[in-house]
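Handout, page 2. Input:
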Amino acid sequence: MSGKNDIERNDEVGYDAEDEGCGGCVGTLIWLISMLLICCTFPFSLFVTVKQVQEYQRAVIFRLGRVKKGGAVGPGLFFIIPCMDSIQVVDLRTVSFDVPPQEILTKDSVTVAVDAVVYYKINNPMSAVCNVTNAAQSTRLLASTTLRNTLGTKTLQDILADREDIAKHILGSLDSATDPWGIRVERVEVKDVRLPQQLQRAMAAEAEATRQARAKVIEAEGEQKASRALKEASDIISSSPAALQLRYLQTLSSISAEKNSTIIFPLPIELLGGLLPKQ
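Output:
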């Protein structure tokens, strides 16, 4: 059981094991020589032995090629041995980058160009340094591949209507893939979906035809309702002679309000019937 724990401890990033044999002797000799040089050149040696990192940075120290115990150091000042230690500084701030436009063939065989923006940050400096050669470049390449693979399984209608769901799916895929690298993807946004010009014209013509058909249907329904209302009104007026006279007066009132110079005198048809010659 103890041997198994020792193996797991040696495999963890951030812990160095003691060198055995020749390696331990050489390391001790280099350490003694380095300390002697530091003491002989003091206080000038402070310029190369004392390092500083900012609040948003962490430093991973390698001593003779092995990660120094304690993991990443910082922020503030820390001490290194110039002949034995090498440091690599990692920025912990959020980084954003644009995914180049990707020519994607959708599920319904439509070619579109889609670009996106990704926000990520390093939450484990040890993994970002020891587990991947270039964390930033690897994340960029993985984001481009994930965008193509995800949108290739969607139809054009899904891409245009469900951008938020697609962005969440890409975010989950990227976050799980970059977790061994010590990177946490915070946000993914699909910026633009560019369609071919011919397809844009076809979609515009289809939308225009749909709008025209809807307008004709609405106009026909309005005429049907108006004719039904006119029929009901004519039935009411024809049943009462007084209603026709009231309608005359209402028409005169509306005309006099708009055009005062116009005079209209209604003359019943019955009066003209007596003046016409009888056959």
